[in-house]
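Lay summary. Proteins are chains of building blocks that fold into shapes, and those shapes determine what they do. In this project we predict the shape from the chain. Here is one chain we studied, written as its sequence of building blocks.
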Amino acid sequence: MGLWTVNGQENSETQAQATPRWVLILVGIALVFGSVLRLVWLEDMPWHYDQGWLHDRTEFAGRTEPWPMIGIESSLGIMNPGLSAWYIISLGRLAENPVDRLRVIVVINIAAMFGLFLLVWKMIPATRREPWLWMLALFAVNPFTVRFSKRIWQQSVLPPWVLAFFLAHLKRGTRWGSFTWGLVGALIGQIHMSGFFLAFSILVGTIVSEIRARQVSTRWGWWFLGSLIGVPPLVPWLVAVGAGDRAIPVGWTIGNMFFRARMLTYNWFQICSGTGLWYTLQGEMTEFLASPVVGGTPTYAMAFVYVFLLGVTAYALVRLVCRISRFRRNQLPGYSQEPEAWFYLFWGAIGLTFLFFAIVRINWDHYLFISSTFILLAVVILLLPNRKLLAAVVLAQALVSGGFYLYIHEHGGVSGESEYRRTLAWKLEHNEVILPAYR
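And here is the predicted shape, written in a compact code that computers can read:
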């Protein structure tokens, strides 16, 4: 992947011609609707062990119990860095109860979403901007991204950090840009460990790009300084991991590698298609597909939406297969027109996923949330010649997200041991959760 600049200015006439006005209106509507989806029914948040642990630390850390030096245990079986707890505790103390604390997280995530829109509008040249605008529309309404944007969880506080990381990397030709890229890159993995993989993949991609272009675009001294300043909060975690008896689960057996490849492929599919509610709803998926129920009669409208999204995804996969034979940089369709989009898709999404596959036993979808913006670029790149089809996908994914939260609100969550399970509101009503601080 070659180098590209972000400082080029284009006049208003060029900007007006770059993206059709109706697309801009659609993106604006998607951003507003996505904001509404994130703000409604916050009391219907999932409430598991992680949320309870973070709630207790917010209430008691530094007050009636010591300040935690490391975070909660991760899905990998090792503890999270301390910053993952410190940051959420700090945000939580801006409010007095779980619902308002989640509202703080959601508002910050919405601000990051609109901040990304401003970044794209100001820093991506108008003639290369449209893929990013479509990606934003999808990110705003995609069932996966909405779901993980409204939880009290380490992954759910990542969007503003990803925005800062993205901005700094685009401006790495300046001293402040390289310094901030290094600093945020060192800290983002301490918020959630997927950040280490994103930072490393983008770093490798940048080095490869500069070597291929024979041009140094990064102020590496400033990057190193920023990275160095971000290391001290990590020290207690390094000490704890070094002293612990749990090794990082690698799982390099053929069976594990095959399972990881299958799950990561499925997770990409469900993120891109917007159909990844099977794991969340499990046994209630059939009931959800039959919704909405009008006058006691199932309409199965959601099933038709699902069929459409699965069909579009199959069509996109066919287009992908047709392009495999041309998978060289100078033959990639659209590469010369959208080098930024291709760089971040390749290194921010594909590269990160490959690291998950090759290094550690990671196959959970929530580890991909950090790269969901870049993953969704794949959908846009494959479908963009057909703007009307992309618009239909945005609408369909918005309907799935809206239908999902309506279902959760009406049913108090999901029964059984699903990924979502019962909501906080349902558990409080049935005395399954006791929160003395809940007002």
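What the prediction tells us: Confidence is low (pLDDT under 50) at residues 7-16, 329-336.
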